[in-house]
Predict the 3D structure of the following.
Amino acid sequence: MEIDRQEAIDKTRAAIAVDKAKALGFQDDYKAVFSTGKGLDEGIIRQISAKKNEPEWMLDYRLQAYQTYLDMPMHSWGPDLSDIRFEDIYYYNKPTNDKYRDWNDVPIELKETFERLGVPEAERKWLAGSSAQYESEVVYHRMKDEFAKTGIVFTDTDTAVQEYPELMKEYFGSLVKPTNNKLAALNAAVWSGGTFIYVPKGVHVNTPIQSYFRINTENEGQFERTLIIVDEGAHVDYVEGCSAPMYSGDALHAAVVEVIVKKDGYCRYTTIQNWSNNVYSLETKRASAHENATMEWVDGNFGSKTTMKYPSVYLNGEGAKGTMLSIAVAGEGVNLDSGAQMIHNAKNTSSSIISKSIAHDGGKTDYRGTVKFGRESDGSFAHVECDTILVDDQSSADTIPYNTILNGNVSMEHEAKVSRVSEEQLYYLMTRGISAEKATEMIIMGFIEPFTKELPMEYAVELNRLMKFEMIGSVG
Amino acid sequence: MVDNIAIASLPLPEFAKVRYSGWQLDELTPATENTKTTYFLKNTISGIEVSGQSTTYQHLSENMIAQGVIVMGMKQAQMVYGPLVNKLIGSVISKRADRLSAQNYEQFNTGIFVYIPDQVKFDDVLHLTLNHLAMSGQDFVARIFVCVGAHAKVTILQEMHTIGSEKTKASVVIEVLAKVGAQVTYANIDSLGEQTTAFINREVLVKDHATVDWQNAEFNDGNVVMRVASQLNGEGATSHANVIGLTIKKQTQGLVTTVLNKGRHTVGHIFQRGVILNRSTLVFNGIGQIIKGAKGSDAQQESRVLMLSRRARGDANPLLLIDENDVTAGHAASVGRVDDEQMYYLMSRGISERVARKLVIRGFMGEVLMKMPTRAAQQKVMSEIERKLQYEDD
């Protein structure tokens, strides 16, 4: 008897849907202790600022940004954002009255969420420090004592406003101005939570620091603000993970991340985003690399409804290096519009962008990137590689790279490829007795290997699991 | 009657990363100049030369005439073959495609009409020369339509020149229809003057199993936005578009090459090479688009830019828009200096640095150079490269 193929696929999908719901899609039974309610006006911004006990300058900054937000038009390019109902969004939900350093003190409902996501376990095993943000505020953060002793600051950005006003005044908003784009302006007006890291001169943190961001309420807006300052010769490895359950109302995640890497410094910023398919993730990430500094973005994107994210590195010092290594996997109803920007502003700078994407079941992955060589970028070099696999004929992909060159003494290589799963490779594997499904899986895992091998082991395992979840039933 | 309101509401054509709205290409006063001088074509070359509103040269080989080939000035063609000409014009580039093309449709008062009947084949090259007379300060608004019949095989060499040095604008729209199984080689050398600010829009509609080879050499000295597009509508339609550009002084050239794969098993290749000198700007935008359902199609592009000045600006933007998975699509782009290794090799053979440099640059643009259909055209491209390279900063 022949098994109906479509039926088998449907069953597998249904099973995965249940499994996924268990893994990430659960809704936590938890009420915020304070919420500004739906919608936004100047009063709400004042409320947020007052609730956080902020100094005058930060309130002024927020109010000015709010004005910019009102004045600016929405992006005219890229995915359609007209479905976002800004008036229905909860701009600020405070989950608890306290921040916790000891896991045992975290309220049981929040703890369950993060335990299910594996956050505390990961921390015990292999992290230098970790934090967890629930809705608008960081509810837990901790740095291992051995690292804290070196003078590293690892806290949430709200606390940093209170405790490190000098650093905040100098660097907050120094790379991403509210005028950058409408959502960056919105973030600057209503930001809450996020991570603040300062690594003093010469200090090396060899184990990663992790943050986990969780959206739980329907129509929640999460606007975290992350600022990382890596002082001269210092070294840090930061990892963030994101998730949200499935609701009928869309959630909005509009983060701003700024990373300053000073002379000879090194920063790797790894993101694994696994939003449910009702989250708009519209992020602005920008880094500045000074003389001989290295900035590396490692970016894995699954899920969301629409993602727009183009992390940049401004190579401002001689010999600075910037890299972006990303994968994007888009299934049904998902549009991942992402890329990178490398701006060469100094001599002998180099950059590399490697983007891998997979679209299946009608998903859409776009690469949108910029490489710019400024007037002073003598001797600089850029390498760009974008590879896309379209698994089926319902899926699509655009590759939109802009390369602007204002200096005669530079070189750039750019390559891109869009194709389906290689028939030759499939054929080869299948003649060795491997099933079509298994062979496709192997080819896709091989395709993203350059990415997975850069991840911390636990993340790589998790990523492989996610990949299998995504792809089962969609190939063959 | 010119429908000004409708035209003004249309968007300007898309030339990403080129700022040209200030060039005022949408405000044209079509020139009415006539001349009796023949400028370029002579000695029984097959083809036509149109200068301003005048046809200044017209000759066809016996072979062409016997096969029913029509080559005429646009105004004359509209008088003689009115219904046919009016039906064809606007059938490749829609009358309302964009503000500048729409305006050209309303305002053109000169141009060339070519009609090649089905099955016609000829080996000699058909020359189409358009001369913009820039003596009065009025603008040049011209239209070319080339209809190539089913299974016909033709080679066309189109040239554009500016005669005179008044500050003027030019709008030239070229439509090519390649019917089933047609084989078209369309080479053009554009050499508009320094004081001519131009919009050039070329598009071919390629039917089943037809093939088009574009060879585009952009040697204009003024500010130019130029688009060359292939719509691969028919099954198995093929287009190769080779574009070279060389910019000098303070000019800006924005060149867009587009291939739209609509039919199944269509092949669209884009190949762009640019050399940039002085304070000039050269922007290459390549767009390879595969529509859903165009199974088995292939979209490839390659853009290479050579920067010969510290103060110049070059852009290479190769876009791929893919809505179908049963395809192969790719692009490559690079930007760099004159190849040191090649220079070293040549100089070690006793060739002076200056000559070696020229050879390397000529080699860089060699693809289009070699594919020019006549020796004269090859020499013309070579001398244009030499002429432009004289402006190189020392």
Observations:
- DSSP finds nine helices and 19 strands in chain B.
- The CA atoms of residues 63 and 124 of chain B lie 10 Å apart.
